Amino acid sequence: MLGALLAAFVPFTLVSYLNLEPIVDCFRDPKGLRRYPSLNCFSPFTGRAFIWEAHQGFRSKALLTIHQKHPVVRIGPKSLSYGVVKAVKDIDGHNTKCLKDVFYTLLSGTHYHLADLVDNPEHARKRKVLSSAYALKNLERWGHKVADKTERLMRGFDARCTAPLSKKYTRPDSQDLTVDYRSWTNFFTLDAIADIGLSERLGFLDAGNDKVVAERMDGSLHEVNYRECLHATARAQSGLVWAYEWYPQLQTISSTLSKQYRRMWKLNNDWNDIDISLE
Description:
Layout: H1 2-28, H2 48-54, H3 59-67, E1 72-76, E2 79-82, H4 87-92, H5 102-107, H6 120-133, H7 136-139, H8 143-159, H9 181-198, H10 204-207, E3 211-215, E4 221-225, H11 226-240, H12 247-257, H13 259-278
Antiparallel strand pairs: 1-2, 3-4
Helix pairs in contact: 8-9, 11-13, 12-13
């Protein structure tokens, strides 16, 4: 009997703590955020409210709509969204007193980069190292790499070029639609950045696709689509990260219960394998 009571009491206490504490904090309002309008009625209580918004298909539209009336909006118990450009310098300027949120730590890998590094002195050190490398006088020295990628892009277009439309037709034949311009400009950007930043030849423009060899931790190799892995990682993380304290559990739950998330997390692992192969 006592065992059954304990078995029921522990999960009840845990659930009560996780759900009642945010409600108490909302009314205590220790950070003074109650004065700001909320994105939805649950935003002051839990970050899961923003996860719900993220799964409606157009999170930025919901933010834009409310920002047209309110410059500052509460999107979580301790999170605000600013809809005014002048706030960017105060929040993310070089001499800002603001600290990066735990958001960046949750999504970081084994090595921090400039975008997710939360330690200001270390960020300044890394920025100093990279700023000289990407100074205009140094970028001019890499013009031949950009020219090389431009030539390869034009070569790819020329190989797929079809005859121009005759005057009596206003729509091209489906067989003449041989170039996905967005994909090819992605290939150009990725090839150029990899060559300039890593002296790595990805070869997307030559191949006409973004297939790349990835390496697992055990040393085995496999072929993956670069952009598919990149986009799946971003979509999975941006859908679930907003409830910080729940994020590890949400990763596990989503990969177990959702076919879509299971696929995205698998592609996220493939993305990690690409990083290993480029090291």
